[in-house]
């Protein structure tokens, strides 16, 4: 654990600075790909988009728009609005943003251009949602984060195995992901499932680079923070309010520790994925991996929510030491949403989510085939012209 702490502390001394290439950036989020079940892939797109300008506006669709074009969302629009606001690269959000981005939308919010990942987004009838702004030269593109998707996360919840903790080449896991994310016409590179590999560079990009200053109140919280969601955001925001100058350190339990006290196939996200998810939250100052309470930490306050405190391996209270020191505090965030609740939402609507992803992939495959035909046609025409 000490080696892990030193590694994370060293990496977090760095941070990235957005460029001044463009004065404004309008990042129009496609909720089922970009903002339903918000994960670090979405946050990484926001980080890249913020680097293209000085002011980032995130447009979030309504439940009705998502249901019309994609299928049922996992989270409600109010939950998604709050999650997007909590991401540290976002300056402002637009609630109920239209699904199809137009020049009128960009002008309405004073934006020079819009930004999206390098995957395609389609309307219910298969049209590119960014066609108009692309033709007008007001579209920018950033790299999609490989190895993470809403499809994959939903698949993990339904499969109920531990393959994602270590090795995704498990045949049972691969067979399920094939069934879940693959339609009858083949595999889409955007909806398919792939394995995420966290790198030191990625941690550096997500880290704030800020260290505690004299006068800061160092607050420590620990837990799984699995499927980082609005319940976690509300808790961390309430923790942040416990001091005038808070410096919040989040200790993340290793996969094996979470599985010990949660069982089943928890955590849904592995330790690397959970690290980036927490780092993207604007109220999180620092994070590192841990088993349980680290007695070597020098902190002013230790907080835990109203959720159950699971005993340590020997049956002891993991917060016994901070309680003895008189620095332990129970925080009521007013939000009872848990990771278990999210999993239950998915299970209850399994067939709908499977149909949603297969329909999405079928549309994407149709576009890919059309693009291939167009490319082949262009090559043929070019060859014909050169022969004359």
UniProtKB/TrEMBL annotation:
<dbReference type="GO" id="GO:0004306">
    <property type="term" value="F:ethanolamine-phosphate cytidylyltransferase activity"/>
</dbReference>
<protein>
    <recommendedName>
        <fullName>ethanolamine-phosphate cytidylyltransferase</fullName>
        <ecNumber>2.7.7.14</ecNumber>
    </recommendedName>
</protein>
<keyword id="KW-0808">Transferase</keyword>
<keyword id="KW-1208">Phospholipid metabolism</keyword>
<dbReference type="Pfam" id="PF01467">
    <property type="entry name" value="CTP_transf_like"/>
</dbReference>
<keyword id="KW-0443">Lipid metabolism</keyword>
<comment type="pathway">
    <text>Phospholipid metabolism; phosphatidylethanolamine biosynthesis; phosphatidylethanolamine from ethanolamine: step 2/3.</text>
</comment>
<dbReference type="InterPro" id="IPR004821">
    <property type="entry name" value="Cyt_trans-like"/>
</dbReference>
<feature type="signal peptide">
    <location>
        <begin position="1"/>
        <end position="21"/>
    </location>
</feature>
<dbReference type="GO" id="GO:0006646">
    <property type="term" value="P:phosphatidylethanolamine biosynthetic process"/>
</dbReference>
<comment type="pathway">
    <text>Lipid metabolism.</text>
</comment>
<dbReference type="GO" id="GO:0005737">
    <property type="term" value="C:cytoplasm"/>
</dbReference>
<keyword id="KW-0548">Nucleotidyltransferase</keyword>
<comment type="similarity">
    <text>Belongs to the cytidylyltransferase family.</text>
</comment>
<keyword id="KW-0444">Lipid biosynthesis</keyword>
<feature type="domain" description="Cytidyltransferase-like">
    <location>
        <begin position="34"/>
        <end position="154"/>
    </location>
</feature>
<feature type="domain" description="Cytidyltransferase-like">
    <location>
        <begin position="221"/>
        <end position="295"/>
    </location>
</feature>
<keyword id="KW-0594">Phospholipid biosynthesis</keyword>
<dbReference type="InterPro" id="IPR044608">
    <property type="entry name" value="Ect1/PCYT2"/>
</dbReference>
<dbReference type="InterPro" id="IPR041723">
    <property type="entry name" value="CCT"/>
</dbReference>
<dbReference type="InterPro" id="IPR014729">
    <property type="entry name" value="Rossmann-like_a/b/a_fold"/>
</dbReference>
<keyword id="KW-0732">Signal</keyword>
């Amino acid at each position: 654990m000490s080696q892990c702490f030193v590694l994370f502390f060293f990496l977090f001394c760095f941070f990235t600075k957005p460029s001044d290439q463009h004065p404004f950036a309008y990042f129009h989020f496609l909720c089922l790909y970009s903002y339903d079940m918000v994960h670090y892939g979405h946050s990484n797109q926001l980080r890249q988009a913020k680097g293209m300008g000085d002011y980032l506006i995130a447009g979030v669709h309504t439940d009705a728009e998502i249901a019309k074009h994609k299928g049922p969302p996992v989270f409600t629009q109010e939950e998604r609005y709050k999650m997007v606001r909590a991401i540290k690269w976002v300056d402002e959000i637009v609630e109920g943003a239209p699904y199809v981005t137009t020049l009128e939308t960009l002008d309405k919010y004073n934006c020079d251009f819009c930004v999206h990942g390098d995957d395609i987004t389609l309307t219910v009838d298969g049209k590119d949602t960014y066609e108009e702004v692309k033709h007008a030269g007001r579209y920018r593109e950033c790299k999609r984060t490989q190895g993470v998707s809403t499809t994959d996360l939903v698949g993990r919840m339904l499969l109920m195995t531990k393959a994602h903790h270590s090795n995704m080449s498990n045949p049972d896991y691969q067979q399920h992901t094939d069934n879940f994310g693959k339609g009858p016409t083949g595999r889409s590179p955007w909806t398919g499932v792939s394995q995420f590999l966290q790198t030191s560079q990625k941690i550096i990009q997500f880290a704030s680079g800020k260290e505690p200053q004299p006068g800061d109140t160092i607050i420590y919280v620990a837990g799984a923070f699995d499927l980082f969601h609005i319940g976690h955001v509300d808790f961390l925001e309430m923790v942040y309010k416990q001091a005038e100058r808070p410096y919040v350190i989040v200790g993340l339990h290793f996969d094996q520790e979470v599985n010990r006290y949660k069982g089943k196939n928890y955590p849904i996200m592995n330790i690397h994925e959970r690290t980036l998810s927490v780092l993207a939250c604007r109220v999180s100052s620092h994070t590192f991996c841990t088993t349980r309470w680290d007695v070597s930490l020098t902190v002013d306050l230790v907080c835990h929510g109203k959720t159950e405190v699971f005993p340590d391996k020997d049956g002891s209270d993991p917060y016994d030491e901070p309680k003895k020191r008189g620095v332990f505090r129970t925080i009521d965030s007013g939000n009872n949403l848990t990771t278990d609740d999210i999993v239950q939402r998915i299970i209850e609507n399994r067939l709908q989510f499977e149909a949603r992803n297969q329909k999405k992939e079928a549309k994407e495959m149709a576009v890919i085939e059309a693009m291939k035909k167009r490319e082949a046609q262009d090559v043929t025409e070019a060859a014909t012209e050169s022969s004359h």
